[in-house]
């Protein structure tokens, strides 16, 4: 049955989901359940959906009934936010110090996610030139941010 649950949910923890579903089934009683197998599969699917929601929102409690008080806050601390904003501002200032061509190539690669080859084709330069510009930008910005 766990193979069926794995196929339906696409999750690697199908056995854990099945165990939690069986536990739920036994705790809540079996009255009114005509097809226990279908009930268990549906219950395991619901548990998988709940788990995926918790993971998406940063919670770590795996199943219903876990101690919610032990879930860490997904938000960063205010001082970490301030430091990240300061580093980002410093990075922006450093980007402004790059020559226009190097900045353009660096941003195409890092922000737009273009490959070196795609940038080379777009700007009609060699892949080697793109590599040199990106390397130059990274070297400069690393030093700039660390100062």
Describe this structure in words.
The protein has about 150 residues and is mainly alpha-helical. It has two domains: about 1-55, no CATH class; about 100-145, Orthogonal Bundle (Arc Repressor Mutant, subunit A). About 70% of the residues lie in helices and about 0% in strands. It contains seven helices and no strands. Helix 1 (about 1-10) packs across helix 3 (about 35-55) and helix 2 (about 15-30) crosses helix 3 (about 35-55). The protein is elongated. The model has no long low-confidence stretch (mean pLDDT about 80).
Order of helices and strands: HHHHHHH
How much helix is in the residues? over 70%
Shape: elongated
- Radius of gyration from CA coordinates: 26 Å
Biggest β-sheet description: none
Structural class of the secondary structure composition? mainly alpha
Beginning-to-end CA distance, first to last residue: 59 Å
Q: Give the domain tally.
A: 2
Low-confidence stretches: none
Query: In what range is the share of β-strand residues?
Result: under 5%
The number of helical segments is: 7
Give the tally of β-strands.
0
Mean pLDDT level:
79
